Hints:
Elements: E1 3-7, E2 13-17, H1 22-31, E3 39-42, H2 48-59, E4 64-67, E5 70-73, E6 82-83, H3 85-88, H4 98-105, E7 107-111, H5 124-132, E8 136-140, E9 143-147, E10 155-157, H6 166-176, E11 182-186, H7 192-203, E12 207-209, E13 215-219, E14 228-230, H8 235-247, E15 251-255, H9 263-271, E16 274-279, E17 282-287, E18 296-299, H10 310-317, E19 323-328, H11 337-343, E20 347-351, E21 354-358, E22 367-369, H12 373-385, E23 389-393, H13 396-401, H14 405-410, E24 415-419
Amino acid sequence: xxRLAIEGGIPLSGTITISGAKNACLPILAATIxxxxxxxxxxxxxxxxxxxxxxxxxxLGREITKTGDKVEISEGSVKNVxxxxxxxxxxxxxxxxxxxxxxxxxxxxxxxxxxxxxxPRPIDxxxxxxxxxxxxxxxxEGYILAEGKELKGxxxxxxxxxxxxxxxxSNILMTAVLTDGETVIENAACEPEVLDLAGFLSGMGxxxxxxxxxxxxxxxxxxxxxIEYSVIPDRIETGTYMIAxxxxxxxxxxxxxxxxxxxxxxxxLIECGxxxxxxxxxxxxxxxxxxxxxxxxTTLTYPGFPTDLQAQMMSLLTIANGLSVITEKVYxxxxxxxxxxxxxxxxxxxxxxxxxxxxxxxxxxARVMASDLRASAALVLAGLMAEGxxxxxxxxxxxxxxxxxxxxxxxVGAKVHRVKE
Length: 421
């Protein structure tokens, strides 16, 4: 099992090119099931999750070639409507194939999804929305068995216990584009990744209005065509490196980053002492003079502060001046990284879904273990900030969501390398 070895205390300086968005790319790949035509998708990141989705599509019978940042899905139809446990159990976004299979072929057999252990992430909203469109669903031996030969548009409210759901919105959107009549998705997720999926589907010939707002209207069409499409830059990778610049007292230019996708983070980084310049081709960020100011942060669905940047922000706030508070409103159990940060000298206590962080003068390098994708990034940031040597184990999580992270960090001055085991 590989690990990252880090020598901390070095300010990062230089340019990092932001890769394509993982959370946009995966549903877009799944959406290619909706057409028999050839599709070419560019700005696809080189990530384990991307290869998992490609393997799933291959298992369904599609022929796929990945060259550099381009993925070509050859002309042809799906031969098999079963997405197996062996593949789906490793990645939550695998559930994205459920809607397209039903919409295009009238049936699907998809295993319950897996992914990072960050607390309960039910798929009840997916199933609720599909049933509202006329899909018959039952669960047997860990598989979702769905049948929907005669789908009909409907008004669907996708409100969940912790707000809207990106993947549920995406799944219902992909089903609705080939469903007879009009479908109205209320309390739809507004994330840029949903808007990007809608752009892809519209390019294929779908009729969609309101994507990026809480109400999406879809008029079903009979057939979709192939398309060439480029995925948006990854706002979570962008946010992670924005935090890294401030945390290491460095200065980074993040090429291709879209400032409008990270407004909540930008606001907090300025409040804690960061200085940010938005450019037409990216974002420049540095730490200002003096210590980092403490913050009160609450994670919310977009456009609020992203839960996927909560752990990274916590690493930064371990060295802030005074007490900081982070409240997790999206995944209240997403705090496994606290114990590992405390091993590095942080002073963090957890009260329910709220972490209270008492800033310390410095972190100390240590051997730590990653628990999930974003926690892995948080521990890497902590290692970059800390004095001395840090080793982050179980970094296979990182490979799911950050393209060549050690290469990108090394290029801007970090002393970090992968240790193969």
